[in-house]
Amino acid sequence: MAGMDATAGPTPAPATTRTSEPGTVVYRHSITTRLTHWVAFVSILVLVMSGLQIFNAAPYLDASDKSDPAHRVLAFDGQDAPGGGSIGTTTIFGHAFTTTHWFGYTDDGQGSEAVRAFPGWITFPGYQDLAGGRSWHFFFAWVMVLAGVAYFAAGAIRKDLALLILRPSDVPKLWPMQAYYLKLRKEPPDHGKYNPLQKAGYTLVLFVLAPFVVITGLALAPGFDAIAQPIVTLLGGRQFARTWHFVSMLLLVGFFFGHVFLVASTGLFNNMRSMITGTYRLGKHEGTGP
Amino acid sequence: MKRRVFVASSMAAALAGCAKVTNGLNDWQAIHPVLETANTLDQAVIGTRGWAKLYRPQDVTVDYPVNGLDTPQQPEYVALLQDDFSSYHLPVAGLVEHPQSFTLRQLRALASLDQITRHDCVEGWSVVGDWRGVPLGSFLQLVRPKPEARYVVFYSYDHDSGGQQFYGSLDLQQAAHPQTQLALDLNGKPLDAAHGAPVRLRIPTQLGYKSTKWIRNIQVVSSFAGIFGGRGGYWEDNGYAWYAGV
What we know:
The complex is a heterodimer of chains A (about 290) and B (about 250).
Chain A: H1 2-8, H2 13-17, E1 25-27, H3 31-55, E2 60-62, E3 72-80, E4 86-92, E5 95-98, E6 104-107, E7 113-116, H4 130-158, H5 171-181, H6 196-218, H7 222-227, H8 229-234, H9 238-265, H10 268-276, E8 279-281
Helix pairs in contact in A: 3-4, 6-9
Chain B: H1 2-27, H2 31-35, H3 37-45, H4 75-82, E1 89-94, E2 100-103, H5 104-110, E3 113-120, E4 126-135, H6 136-143, E5 151-159, E6 165-171, H7 172-175, E7 181-186, E8 189-190, E9 200-202, E10 215-221, H8 234-237
Parallel strand pairs in B: 1-10
Antiparallel strand pairs in B: 1-2, 3-4, 4-7, 5-6, 5-10, 7-8, 7-9
């Protein structure tokens, strides 16, 4: 709250977001943040891979309640090719692409190839085992949710969760920050603990995508559907929920790669250290406030 | 060119390593009881409550799909099928006050529950069917489970290729859910052999693998100890979770 009072005061807002001089080493991430971050990393890895294992059991997605080929948005197929060999096909909104060795007909996780949607090197386990994939998926779903609850609770108690929420005052700084990343601008705008783009990304992931991936996953459970019918209806039905669950996974994976790229390109050592020991050297125009 | 081949082959080796790691973890038997704690949590949080969505007649899937073998090949079942199930009877025994055997005619007289519900397969697909049959809760009241009774086990006529009999189970609370039924008809016709004739289980609040087909007999028990793999069902003995509400 002190930070907010300061920004509302007579002094210009950008200056007050910087509470430390550049080059100062600060304690950036609490133990809860660091622990839950790495738990989330492992959980997301297992959840995505085991999710693709589960997907392989019904390698298509429909935009409907019950399964309906007329509303198919994505399908993987594998078949024998005329004249020997096999071909894998990926069909997106009715457009078929040959994806042999990648999707449809691909690595079976046991050193050979077979008819299956996603290859063995990206599923958990590698070989086809729906029961196993489900066990890993549901266990790590709980680990991820409990880590998320711990993260939010600790952040709320310490009052530093608010530092990464995008505020209206951050919006004018979004483009200058993007321009800096694109090297169209020499200096980033003054900001607090997180820059405006980080705030936008984290706000979207933590408060929109994360709850959405949980809800769409739950909507696939017939037991959950019986106690939350309106949610499934709102999502367009059970198969539609499966499609949303897949789409939210793709968006989260997209965020993951963007996140890793930025960690590596904005000071790999400093960033990694902040998520391991907690300490972080402030850059120019960077502070510790909101 | 050589460099590209080298890069491609080392990438392939790294990717093959991925599967080796995940396969190894999944083959590690000691981890599975740990993973299954999640299923206990799922059951505690979600359970078998509420009401599965009821559909309209026009929502029904006409060509209702079938998983696995179409018809059991056991001589006992083939003989029943040939005489149109006229000699079929369903024994209910175990921890009950009044063990009884029900003829198909008796079951038909009890078939008061007609509901159009969605069937969600563990593989991921969903179909909608009009199921008519005996509400399992009131059916069990006829045989009166004893106080120590906890589970209802459904034995099938079908066996897998290795000779293992199919079976499944529910607890008494799941069995008493008002939408749980011993189904006799699908989409207005008596069940055909592919869909579980003459009697199968239908529990729309759980995944399809809980809905045992071709029921031969029912046993009420206090635990799964001594019943095949001891995990309460054929699919459960093969690694699937006992609680299939998720």
